[in-house]
Write a structure and sequence with these properties.
It is built from 11 helices and 8 strands. By secondary structure, the protein is of the alpha+beta class. It has 2 domains: 165 residues, Cathepsin B, Chain A (Alpha-Beta Complex); 145 residues, no CATH class. Strands 3-8-4-5-6-7 form a 6-stranded antiparallel beta sheet, sandwiched between helices. Strands 1-2 form a two-stranded antiparallel ribbon. A hairpin with a 2-residue loop joins β5 and β6.
Length: 332
Amino acid sequence: MTQFSHTQTAHCESGVISNLFGHHGLHISEPMAFGIGAGIFFGHLPFVKVNGVPGSTYRIWPGAIFARACKRLGVEMESHKFGSVDKAMKALDQMIDKGVPVGMQSSVYYLPYFPESYRFHFNAHNLVVYGKDGDDYLVSDPIMDTVTRIDTESLIRARFAKGFPAPKGKMYYPLNVPQEVDFNEPIKAGIAQACHYMLKIPVPMFGVKGIRFLANRVKDYPAKVGDRRAALYLGNIIRMQEEIGTGGAGFRFMYAAFLQEAGSLLDKPELNDIGRELTIVGDSWRNFAANAGRVCKARSADNVSYGELSKMLVQIAGQEENVFRRLSTVKL
């Protein structure tokens, strides 16, 4: 049976990168994987509904961190999606028989090792299957504190869950992993791309502009959609921030850790300073979530409450803009 070294991480995609690459001899921390993959982001998408209400994202779209990290680190990956369950499970079993751990996309809802309160319809969760014992598959799920297992039927349901984005049995594994990598250029490329996405995308729903866009909408929620839906809209902002994929504040803390690690590797102490500044932004996001939660529980239709939350978001937007403008001027 394949031995797999499992490390618990904060986020599934960057955690799978760290664990899977480490298994093949390329040791990279989760924050470094997240930073090289330019994972930090913000977007508010009123036309993309999550459980019937507008969606927000605090990270780049699923799969992008992995693709960027592989490209910048010179890792060659093989990836497959499947039209049938039989082909998908046969392909998985073939790789496991070869002793190759396999990353895959799944739905959180059908993972029985998750506590029931954490199981919801989110189809972009990443995990590693590294072995099989009878009818159970052995799983390294980055957000769990230890390895676990899943029965065949549950794994099939998780791999072929309906909804967006449909996993379609997606599985992936490295074909070639360099044992030694110069992190300098990947770090620089990751920072440059993150700054561009946070500051320069012309669409108003993304980056720093997107936070201000959300702020403008939040203050008008009670008047435009009514008390009940306003609370649902606000509750989903909190949920997307604090529960799904590490959350807005969590991603800010992770990127801050990346900047501090990068500062040491590149001998650029200003990156350490910017990282500390970004942790303050993370605290601001957590403070916003706490206050928004109180508004939701009160079911307040008072525009002043939503207006104050809007002002908090405007302040956060200013903080993030300062961080990324400063970061964009560092000579790397």
